[in-house]
Amino acid sequence: MSNHLLRSHAPISDSNWELLDDEARQRLGAALAARKLVDFSGPHGWEYSAMNLGRVQDVASAPCAGVTALQRRVMPLVELRAEFEISRAELRDDDRGAQDADLEALDIAAHQIAVAENVAVFHGWADASIAGIAEVSPHQLPLGDAPDKYPRPVAAAVERLLHSGISGPYALALGGEQYQRVVQTAEHGGYPLLEHLGKILEGPIVWAPGVKGAVVISQRGEDFLFESGQDLSIGYLDHDRDVVRLYLEESFSFHVATPEAAVALTE
Asked: Angle 193-201/151-163 helices, nearest 10 degrees?
């Protein structure tokens, strides 16, 4: 664990840290949709600062005559942080063996940072120089708001990718509202909509909180790269007699290599 997280300075026992880390891992695992569907590289560590784009740009001048210069292009990583507080009384009860510690603040922070990551990857984050998958895709199709009709646009998206020379299998990232509609809907004859969509895609369907509409994305690889510096970890801020102030933090960057390898489905 990185020293900059200052975990050793926190008035938190080993048992408490295990509790907090397990809770964060569980909450984040469900909501981190983007990294389930794109190539993941890392974690490379807190000191890792930029993604290599493999490209160069001209330098206007050189230090002396007779030489030319090129500058390597990189994409700086961005740091995300979500702060939260935990009651010291709850932590003491955990040390006594309580099985029902109140970790709602951690759950909220985990959801917030997962949504931020999903939004950055799928819809972009201009201020961090991140272009999102749906934002840059040349393929935009309407999804509509009737879940029993979702198979038609999903099939059209798969067909669009095939015609563009993008092989499968394909995955579907569904925004929170759209995912809820799908899991609650049975088509005529009682056939589950989720299974129907899965047969069209031949790949995973994931809950993606923060995503607007849905995105069909090729799983062939090397089209979308998520590069992790420090993976999501809990760090220590400070404390008083009543609460410990902590945070979830990560550093990452994201690069779209093949914009045409995804289809944005908009409502």
From this structure: 10
Q: Rounded to the nearest 10 degrees, how much is the dihedral formed by the CA atoms of 8, 9, 11, 12?
A: -30
CA atoms within 13 A of residue 171's CA, in its CB half-sphere: 17
pTM of the model: 0.92
Distances in Å between the Cα of 99 and the Cα atoms of 96, 111, 222 are 9, 22, 43
How high is the pLDDT of residue 189? 58
Q: Which two tokens stand for residue 236?
A: 């220590």
Using alpha carbons only, give the angle 172, 175, 176 rounded to the nearest 5 degrees: 125
Q: Answer whether 208's CB lies under 8 Å from 33's CB.
A: yes
Give pLDDT tens digits for 153-177: 999 999 999 999 999 999 999 999 9
- The confidence score (pLDDT) of residue 123 equals 98
Write down the pLDDT at residue 184.
Answer: 85
Tens-place pLDDT, residues 54-104: 999 999 998 999 999 999 999 999 999 999 999 999 999 999 998 888 999
Residues 6+ apart with CB under 8 A from 134: 122, 123, 211, 212, 213, 215, 262, 264
CA 225 to CA 262: how far, in whole Å?
13
Instruction: Tally the residues of the chain.
Output: 267
Tell me the C-alpha distance between 186 and 139, whole Å.
Answer: 28
Strand partners, 247: 83, 235
Q: Is the pLDDT of residue 204 over 80?
A: yes
Rounded CA-CA distance 257/261 in Å is 9
Which residues make Cβ contacts (< 8 Å) with residue 81, sequence separation at least 6? 113, 247, 248, 249
What pLDDT is attached to residue 99? 87
In this structure, the strands spanning 233-239 and 243-256 are: antiparallel
Sequence-separated (6 or more) residues with CB below 8 Å from residue 89: 242
